[in-house]
Predict the 3D structure of the following.
Amino acid sequence: MAKTLLEMRNITKTFPGVVALDSVNLDITEGEIHALVGENGAGKSTLMNVLSGIYPFGDYTGDILFDGSVCKFNTIRDSEHKGIVIIHQELALVPYLTIGENMFLGNERGSYFNVNWNETHSKADSLLKMVGLTEPSRTLIKDIGVGKQQLVEIAKALAKNVKLLILDEPTASLNEADSRKLLDLLLDFKKKGMTSIIISHKINEVSYVSDRITIIRDGAVIKTLDKNKDTFTDDDIISGMVGRSLVDRFPKRKPSIGDKTFEVKNWTVYHPQYEGRKVCDNVSMNLRKGEVVGISGLMGAGRTELAMSLFGKSYGVDITGEVYVNGNSVNLNSVQDAINNKIAYVTEDRKGNGLILSTPIAENTTMAKMEKVSKHNIIDKDLEIKVANEYKEKLKTKCTSVLQNTGNLSGGNQQKVLLSKWMFADPDILILDEPTRGIDVGAKYEIYCIINQLVAEGKTVLFISSELPEILGMCDRVYVMNEGKMVAELDIKDATQEVIMSCILQSGKRS
Amino acid sequence: MTHMVELKNTLKKNTMFFALIVVMVLFQVMIVASDKGSLFNPANISNIISQNAYVVILASGMLLCILTGGNIDLSVGSIVCLVGAVAGTLIVNMNVNIYIAMFLSLLVGLAIGAWHGFWIAYVRIPPFIVTLAGMLLWRGVAMIILNGLTISPFPADYLKYFTSFLPGEADSTVIYAVTLSVAFAACALYVVLQILDRIKKIRKGYEAEPLIMMIVRLVLICGAVLLVFWFLAQHKGIPVVLILITIIVLIYSYFTTKTVPGRHLYALGGNEKAAKLSGVNTNRVLFFAYANMGFLSAVAALVGIARFNSAFPAAGTNYELDAIGACFIGGASAYGGTGTVGGAIVGAIFMGVLNNGMSILGIDANWQKAVKGIVLLAAVVFDILSKKRAKSR
């Protein structure tokens, strides 16, 4: 029997008024990949923060046994010293430093007053090879993609003689191919004897990679599934997470599709920084009333760039092409033009591009169409609160009041506020860019229901997603995009994961 | 239960206001103990108001700049000096009609603000650099205009708009009666407006604050107004400049809380990308904030030359720092997106009381500076720590 590397016994952590963790027990066997799953706010991250010393000893009750000894961590440094390294969901890399400098940040080679850069970079290079990166370690972080940055984080952990690697939502911002690469890397490390804990929302990934799965709900462990004893079925895991079984992950809808509402012809966009690089290359597509149209593609395929360039030329330079709304040619030169033509773009990056976290829900809700709550530029605050409450009810946003700051909400509820904001703007055409990214299963279902409701009201939805099951479950028609080009248009009846992937791969070969 | 939470939130939101009261009481105790008179001497209250009018005016504008993203305007003091020099030249040396001179002076301030706004908003040069350049440039231009000399005295026709008192030369009982009636009228107007607003809210089915909270608020605010006016009534009456700053403060707090462009300021400072993608013309908002700062600097300059009855080369020195300090003491975020005009005004009064109290106590000017520095830091630390605790709770 393999030895137990980590044991957490009766961990209880309370925030004033809330029990975040209620006598949680967790044991991790050496050399396994252990998954922690649960809805947002279930307590996964809190548990990992206790383990890594972000909540210092004494802030919680219970014991942590690591490698046979009781540990009392006061800072992250203490836990890292023991070989516990946590990689957070939001990457902690400095964009204007090189890969090598980032990897040894806080752990510099050489002496305090004399950093040995040669050793730094040669060590970094060899560690990068281990995670399958060929970039030289003197490349700046800002010049590599998110997928590669995630690998750099792992290489950084390796540099610290990691015994237990904790990954918090490592694939949240990766596409399927990059995610698969990352998971295979973890399996590879497992063979070499590394132990890891992975926190994830994506059930297919978790069942692919892990030996055991612990399900947490409302601060307590519900059950632990073992690969050798139990089979991992989606239903088991999901019902454990949400406390009910989800009969259908995608709500049904009867499509009633009308006339063309939106059409793009020969849309070409150039990269704002790299001269001559086409981000969207001669793209044409059309959307119809009451239809959900998906855009599928790998990370970097140009989907977000296409959406943002259409939305008032918010991205790119030297944009050419034609846009038709309800058959009329329009020029969308600013975001205001787009809004006036009843187009909405719900960004993939709700914190960075979508919401103003320092202001209340009510103010975020009305942001894109202030005219509706103001007269002669004077805001009717009472009306604003009233409409914000209406959307709160309609979308079932969980908050104490619409005057609560958006920054204090969970990811799923923030997403609902973002959707309220654009629904409030009365659009006919909604471009939803990764609307379910980083939110839990229950909230995803609610977002799907909202989408169905929107098209039932006769609106048009353009649905951009990296998760193929979601595209297949929700859309009436799918466009496949690769390297800035539209490479296929599929009716949902003909689309499967395999077909979409092969469209992408074949288009890659052609060019 | 909810009342308690609301009360707690109200207290938390107004920590600096209570700190101000504590500081006032503290000074009063020290002043009385050392037998140097009283902070609450009617003449002194009146004095504090006219001494600090410029800080209130500048802080209202500076707050808008800070809201756009923690950006500050360093050129304020130099603009005050330059506009003062222009106004002095026009009024004293060239005998231009006072109204035309005032209008031209305000125009100069607005033009300078627009100049800064252009570089900051449309060319996207960092505000720190643009206004640092402005600070040197406009001080230089002011020196050139003044030729290093002081322009004075200003005609009484001009001074009366900024330094006189209402109701003017009159019997002390008349002054007393008029001042207090104005105070009562203002309070009555305020109460009536609040009640009307409440009735409207309830009739339309909106959420209204608890009645008891409203009453407490009304009593506190009216009490403070009546108290100040009671002091003023015993001196010379209502300083004209108080009316000016009241109007400015009302306009700017209305602008920031109730209007669409005001909301856009908060949006820009809270998250510029999100604001842009919501259709906010962020460049125009940024331009407006700096152009407006230039305009308010000109207003402060007109008040300043009247108060000192001269335009001189060192006028306006460190004014920008007073205004910035007032905003931060008043709870504005150094990262932008949060802060209120009311807070900035509390901050301005806080600094004013500090200056005034220390002067009465006869504390050495050098020590005064050191104390002010420590108080600025302490105030912001206190504010941030209390917010932090509120968050973790």
User: Anything to note?
Assistant: Residues 4-242 of chain A form a domain with the Rossmann fold fold (CATH 3.40.50.300). The longest helix of chain A spans residues 176-191.
